[in-house]
Design brief:
The complex is a heterodimer of chains A (495) and B (434). Chain A is built from 21 helices and 2 strands. Chain A has 495 residues and is mainly alpha-helical. Among the domains of chain A are: 208 residues, ABC transporter involved in vitamin B12 uptake, BtuC (Orthogonal Bundle), CATH 1.10.3470; 132 residues, Arc Repressor Mutant, subunit A, CATH 1.10.10. In chain A, strand 1 and strand 2 form a beta hairpin. The longest helix of chain A is centred in the last third of the chain and has 31 residues. The longest helix of chain B is centred in the last third of the chain and has 30 residues. In chain B, strand 1 and strand 2 form a beta hairpin. Chain B is elongated and about 100 Å long. The chains are: A mainly alpha (495), B mainly alpha (434). Chains A and B meet through helix 1, helix 2, helix 7, helix 13 and helix 15 of A and helix 1, helix 2, helix 3, helix 4 and helix 9 of B.
């Protein structure tokens, strides 16, 4: 029993840092949901934050905004080089550097809290960490993911072990060190903000100066090397910028979440554009916006840790961009698919109708048909049997074609082409049959099966391919509408 | 160092947690999904927090369910973003796990508002305190954490043994697995579910940082040591157990050297795993850095050795019968090398291929035979390159010079047949008979 008591005392100093979840959780969570309340800000508070009246808030918001901007810019390149998670390994690897710097400074100077010293330690270890990743990846059979995971966990574990020592030091006061892990945006000082501002400025300048080189590196490294660019040195510069932003961002958002500032704005920007230049600026703006809104919100609500709120703001922007992005957003993909589907239905109906007329009439010598006045058009039922139309689909498509004046429906509910519609039908028929002819003559596809494959491709053949097909198929006159190469479906034939 | 039964329990808990992680970690390493372990162990935080908030207590079951749900959701989100957005896997992971972690931080802060709680402490765990929370089992006081982690290890072992074949094939060749009717996706989701469960079981006691280290490092080290999956699993388990033991010993002894009491056991366990990995990285017999370096060095020496023999043979061929033997300095000059020549000459003398009298070198009959064989390969290659491939310029010699080192008797005979058993090479030099 005595052993246990001694033990408890020996380890007691840990309870502050270690696994508080395991300790007295019942008190902590006894309240359940009731115990958790967000304190909504009053109007005065809101006004004060928005108008930057508070000196501290001003510093914090400006700092977080600039940090977001810098991270957004650099993150773009990081993302395009497919190295997003490298920043995670880098940021975790800084911990032993920070703590070592703290211990050394405490021993020599008696005060370990010199920000520049801590940052220098972080920078040294982030470079070491990056080098370790590269060595493991290059000289062993392990792949990038394992290299990142090993470096991240081992360096961080080392950092935690060192932290255990630092907390036991009599000099120094190590309590503030954990702010590097979870971030402490709210207590940002003027000096911190200045440091961030200088880094952000440097990052912007480098991104502008080396835009072309970085872009080349992102898209075709080998080509850049072949063109004589100093690829390795440029890569070092790029990674140097990443390290700088990571290290500067540690204090603000913490080393676990700083990776989010690098990745998320860039990933969000990618949904809006295909151009790197636009993506770069958009990513910077998203980053800045996250920093500004996130730190603003957390300044208003005392209970919310700023680093986490900044990240969640960025995530919200990401979610919005992923849904509504104008270049790659999900909505856009869905709409495009919907449009294509509608076009396919319309073209299918035009072709079915035309083929109905073809089987009902003898075509004239140039392959086109003329509709004689005494022939009545097909009923809707006639058409619906030609293809597995569902009646709802068919009616909707007919409505759509009527709206664009391709079809008329007469009093007997029979379908008639307009001139306009006849031309469109001829176009699509021509595409279909050219492709069939091509498949038969050049791809040795059996005549009986060409209809199906041509059916799929006719909708996406553009003018250029049509011209090429005409060149490949010399038997077919450019103006001519070829006859069908197989027996047409006559179900629902003319009366 | 005073070792108490508490230290023993700490090590046992650490070992059980580390081994249950390491076992699944092998498959993450092989599937190149190591960072999934990292992502999941960060992302379970909101799962925990929500479980706390909903149940209002720290019962294990709701926590486990919350964590597993979030773990599976994380996998699902990452795949979804991966597929829908065209971002690479790493970026999708980064987006998902940081978002969830941030959410978790906020939730925990809300929940634990009125207690002095540092929310992210989850990171280092409380392995030092696990022996205090015991459970009475047939007169034995067993720490709760040992039971949890032991049970998890058992579940993982059963899973791996039952699905050994399926896991193997889906890890190495998912496409083949699909063609023979094993659903690779289902296996992946089961694996990820177990990773999440293991993470949460271990994470409560040993902290998430140790979980990540133990998921990845033992498997990676084992991967450098063997090519056989069964052996790899075994090695990783041993590696994990040793890291845990050495880690705890390190945590209570190493700080003493610097005048401190002790330090974080979980951190030290992760660090020791890294140190052991560093050892494997350097000294692994086949894939280690040193063995690779040695291999390259030996190959280099072999090539210099061949070149010396070839040079001596050519010299003998051209020189008149009464000419003086070659000087070492001439060889150095011809090969444009210094130290490696000395090393190779020492090796040649040892193998009784070259006789050295003062600074002059002569081939022994043994050495002459090897040299002749080499020159034969060289000149046959030249003939082949010129006659059959049309390389008759300076490149011909350069290529032949490289190829001669890798030509065995069988290849030599084939070259001889293809080129029609020639007597002279394109430079009109005689091709020596074998």
């Amino acid at each position: 029993m005595t052993h246990r008591i001694i033990f408890v005392f020996r380890r007691l100093s840990f309870t502050v840092y270690a696994g508080i979840l395991a300790l007295s959780p019942n008190e902590a969570f006894a309240g359940g949901l009731a115990g958790s309340q967000i304190q909504w800000p009053s109007w005065q508070d809101l006004l004060r934050v928005i108008t930057f009246q508070d000196y501290n808030t001003r510093v914090v918001i400006v700092g977080a905004t600039l940090l977001g901007l810098a991270a957004g810019l650099v993150g773009t390149f990081l993302l395009l080089r497919k190295r997003a998670l490298l920043s995670d390994a880098i940021s975790h690897a800084t911990l032993p550097g920070i703590v070592l710097a703290f211990i050394v400074m405490s021993m020599i100077l008696g005060n370990g809290k010199n920000l520049l010293g801590l940052i220098a330690g972080a920078a040294v270890f982030s470079v070491l960490g990056t080098a370790s990743v590269i060595i493991i990846q290059k000289y062993t059979r392990l792949k990038e993911d394992a290299a990142l995971g090993i470096v991240l966990s081992v360096y961080f574990g080392f950092g935690i072990a060192l932290m255990g020592l630092a907390t036991r030091m009599e000099t120094g006061n190590a309590a503030g060190l954990s702010s590097f892990i979870y971030g402490k945006t709210a207590s940002m000082l003027f000096f911190d903000a200045m440091l961030i501002a200088v880094t952000a400025l440097g990052t912007i300048i480098f991104c502008i100066l080396f835009f072309k080189e970085f872009a080349l590196l992102c898209f075709d490294e080998n080509y850049a090397a072949a063109q004589g660019w100093p690829v390795t040195r440029l890569d070092f510069l790029m990674m140097g910028l990443v390290v700088a932003v990571t290290v500067i961002g540690l204090q603000a958002v913490g080393l676990i979440l700083v990776v989010a500032l690098l990745i998320i704005p860039a990933a969000a920007a990618r949904f809006w554009t295909f151009r790197l230049r636009h993506m770069l600026w958009l990513s910077g703006v998203f980053g800045a916006l996250s920093g500004m809104l996130g730190s603003g919100i957390s300044a208003l609500m005392a209970n919310l840790p700023a680093g986490a709120v900044i990240v969640l703001t960025a995530s919200a922007i990401f979610l919005f961009s992923m849904t509504f992005g104008s270049a790659r957003g999900i909505m856009k993909l869905v709409i495009e698919r919907f449009k294509l589907r509608k076009r396919i239905l319309r073209e299918n109906l035009l072709r079915d109708l035309y083929e109905w007329y073809e089987t009902a009439h003898t075509a004239s010598s140039d392959g086109s048909i003329t509709i004689e006045s005494h022939i009545r058009g097909p009923s809707i039922d006639d058409i619906s049997t030609r293809r597995s139309w569902s009646s709802k689909q068919l009616l909707r498509t007919i409505r759509s074609l009527r709206a664009s004046k391709y079809l008329n429906v007469d009093d007997d509910n029979r379908l008639l082409f307009t001139d306009h519609g006849m031309q469109a039908a001829k176009d699509i028929i021509r595409k279909h049959r050219l492709w069939e002819a091509y498949l038969i003559s050049h791809a040795d596809v059996a005549t009986g099966t060409v209809d199906l494959s041509a059916d799929r491709i006719e909708h996406v053949l553009d003018e250029e391919i049509i011209r090429k097909l005409e060149g490949l198929l010399p038997g077919i006159h450019p103006k001519e509408l070829p006859k069908s190469l197989h027996t047409l479906n006559t179900s629902g034939g003319a009366v | 160092m005073e070792w108490t039964f508490l230290d023993t329990w700490i090590v046992v808990v650490g070992m059980l947690g580390a081994m249950s992680c390491a076992l699944l970690g092998n498959y993450l390493v092989l599937r190149r999904m190591s960072m999934m372990g990292d992502a999941i162990s960060h992302a379970v935080l909101p799962g925990l927090a929500i479980a706390f908030l909903v149940s209002g207590s720290r019962e294990s079951l709701p926590m486990l369910i919350g964590a597993i749900l979030i773990g599976v959701l994380t996998t699902f989100f990452i795949h979804g973003i991966d597929r829908l957005s065209g971002l690479d896997r790493g970026a999708s992971m980064g987006v998902v796990f940081t978002t969830l972690f941030a959410l978790g931080l906020i939730l925990i802060r809300q929940a634990a508002d009125h207690v002095d709680l540092d929310p992210g402490c989850v990171l280092y765990g409380a392995i030092e305190l696990t022996p205090l929370d015991t459970y009475l089992w047939f007169d034995w006081e067993i720490p709760q954490a040992a039971l949890t982690n032991g049970a998890m290890l058992l579940i993982n072992l059963i899973f791996v043994l039952l699905f050994y074949k399926e896991l193997k094939i889906t890890s190495f060749d998912p496409a083949l697995a699909t063609t023979i009717g094993i659903n690779a996706n289902v296996m992946q989701y089961i694996l990820m579910t177990l990773v999440a469960a293991t993470t949460i079981a271990a994470f409560e006691s040993v902290g998430s940082i140790l979980v990540i280290a133990m998921l990845i490092v033992p498997g990676a080290a084992a991967h450098l040591l063997t090519d056989r999956l069964g052996l790899m699993l075994l090695i990783s388990l041993v590696f994990a157990a040793v890291s845990a033991l050495v880690g705890h010993i390190g945590a209570i002894t190493i700080p003493k050297w610097f005048g401190f009491e002790d330090t974080s056991t979980a951190g030290m366990m992760a660090f020791m795993a890294g140190v052991l990995f560093g050892g494997v990285l350097l000294f692994a017999p086949r894939y280690g850095l040193i063995s690779r370096l040695l291999h390259q060095l030996l190959l280099g020496i072999k090539i210099v050795r061949d070149d010396i023999l070839g040079f001596l043979y050519r010299y003998q061929e051209l020189a008149s019968a009464d000419a003086k033997p070659v000087q070492v300095s001439q060889v150095r000059e011809a090969l444009k090398a210094g130290f490696s020549v000395d090393l190779s000459l020492w090796d040649l003398a040892r193998k009784n291929m070259v006789k050295r009298v003062e600074d002059r070198l002569t081939l022994t009959s043994n050495g002459a035979a090897t040299g002749r064989n080499l020159i034969r390969s060289h000149r046959l290659w030249e003939t082949y390159l010129c006659n059959k491939m049309g390389y008759c310029d300076a490149d011909m010699h350069r290529h032949a010079h490289q190829l001669e080192h890798y030509t065995d008797t069988k290849l030599q005979t084939e070259l001889d047949q293809i080129t029609g058993n020639p007597k002279f090479d394109p430079h009109q030099r005689r091709i020596p008979e074998p």
